[in-house]
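@channel sequence for tomorrow's demo:
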Amino acid sequence: MLRPLLLSALLFAPALLSWAQSSLTGRVMSKGQPLPFASVRLEGTRIGVAANAEGIYRIDDVSAGAWTVVASVVGFVPLERRVEVQADGVIELDFYLEARPEAIEEVVISGTMKEVSKLASPVPVEVYSPAFFQANPTSSLYDALECVNGVRPQMNCSICNTGDIRIQGLEGPYTMVLIDGMPIVSGLGTVYGLNGIPSALIERMEVVKGAASTLYGSEAVGGLINVITKSSDDAPALSADIFGTTWGEITADVAASVQLHDKVQGLFGVNAFHFGQRVDRNGDQFTDMPLQDRVSLFNTWSVDREHDRVMTLGGRYIYEDRFGGDLNWVEAEHRGGSERYGESIYTHRWEAFGTYQLPTAERLTLQFSANGHRQNSVYGDVSYIAAQHISFGQLSWDKSLGRVHDVLAGAALRHTLYEDNTPATADGPSEVWLPGLFVQDQMAFNAQNTLLLGLRYDRNSVHGNILTPRLNYKWNTRDQWTVVRMSAGSGYRVANIFTEDHAALTGARDVVVVSDLNPERSNNLNVNVVRKWIGRRSGLVTFDGSAFYTHFSNKILPDYTTDPSQIIYDNLDGFAVSQGLSLNLDVAHEDLTLRVGVTGMEVYTEENGVRKRQELTERFSGTWSLGYHMHRWDLTLDYTGSVYSPMDLPTQTTSDFVDPRPAQSPWFSIQNLQLTHNRGEKVEWYGGVKNLLNWTPWQDMPEGVRFLGNTADPFELNPQEGELVFDPTYVYGPNQGIRGFLGARVLLN
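structure tokens (generated this afternoon):
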């Protein structure tokens, strides 16, 4: 009996050895730090484990043979390693992963005026990719910012729907908009120039919240938005994005890259928007949405030079024809007359900008921009014809001094020429020269501590000398998963009410300027904390929180309440404050992405001991963007939205008249749903519903009260005592209700 058993064992020994099981063990790390809960698996099988909190993993029962082992974790590039497993042994196999650029090391320029990684920047900069905005496709940059926490598109006119972009509760004139770091959109162009930037050419959008006047001068008091366009190397050969809505809106974006020479590349882009239906859902005989025809042409060129020196040149042209008002308004008969009320706006705008790095041993860079804006508008029977030209040049010197100091210094010159048919330029065109000098020193004491000191001096030809200092400090842990930034600085703003306040141009009220307006000054503090985690179930989680405080003196305020027929402008005899807390939470886990943001703030003025909330400013706002990819059907579901708390509204209440419209807005929310289907790598279809709740601002009006006031008598030809006068400045949210949309994107590399 024993002999047959021994014979069988000898015959089956090779097979038994092949069935012997081995183990794989090791650590998953990045830059010397463990990556907790990383996934390690055998390619082509279901065998795998998650590493522990120290990045250590162990896979048992691995059969002998050649295997491909894959280590991955959200936010890092997966790594494959080939290993030969012998029978009945323990094999050590470590992995060293590289962080994905889009997850950890985005390059930003807005905080320090030169390219640095987002992690290394001592100035907190928020970065938004085109994919973020594609989750809720819009016809303009203005509308796209609806889902950015702490940033709100504010409509300023119920008739023509012009608006501005507010950061942390501060009105549009406190926000500077840049294109590739150049101050292109400002002054008269702020109201209309935010539209028409082809989305197909946008590489990313950077948002800086808080005063940035040290680097960018006037208008960057509340913050700045920097639109970075794609380089020729990164842009596709041809891309197109076209979508329409059930309201009849049509938006088209087309972009192409060309190789003119082996060292000269170019980008071309066209953005077009058309809406031609007179829709009146609330029955007041006025358009709910203005009719618009807009076309924007965009072109940039870049030249490859020795030693990677930069040379770029770009330009943009925008034309827009916009109308809102009486449903029976006819342009040839009624434009500028008092028979039927209409707001008709023709806008022509051109822009040119470029960068040239001098062929010197030192890093000297010349940047320049110029733009011209012509506007021919009528608001009822009041005309507004204006022209503005802005020229800007800046020479900067970038120098590293030793291991600690990184210095940026420069000189800038801006010239503004403005003329219109209002009393603002009755004595001739307004001309302002603004030369300036700036310097900043970024000191990296070690891998964990960075200090930035900056100072700017401007000589305004009207208001004289202005100094704006700033200080930024950044501390991070050794593993760089926790970052703390503290900022302090000052800013200033020179105001021109006729170029930034649409209410002054509606024709419904008279404008009164009671004195010469002095420049506003501000001092601000900001503390920002960023913390990242990687969890086995939660994926990559990023928390970003900021506390902010800004104190204003000489603030320029419009007074709507003293006299309902006037808007009175004067410097505040007191102070104003914008303060609050902003929180962002980002989660990326396999096929799920989630971004949630909330902002709580208090924005008020105090004069003669009386505190007053700023009108059209919410105390609380929230935004969200949820995306989920369904592999089975190759579909992506995006659910985006925003919510706002009540705001004080500009009613016409006086001692002898009570406006029947609510003095506060209600809580309201705009929510959107989208499905996207990829047809290979070149085509994707998308469609969905905007404003799912079908919310409109006039839903909360008392019965019998019109949202715009007395639209039957907008020119007050037959005023009645106690009758609510026509006033299109009573507005706080979008007028469009629920609507469907359908579109397609085509990408050819």
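heads up for whoever presents: The first strand starts at residue 21 and ends at 30.
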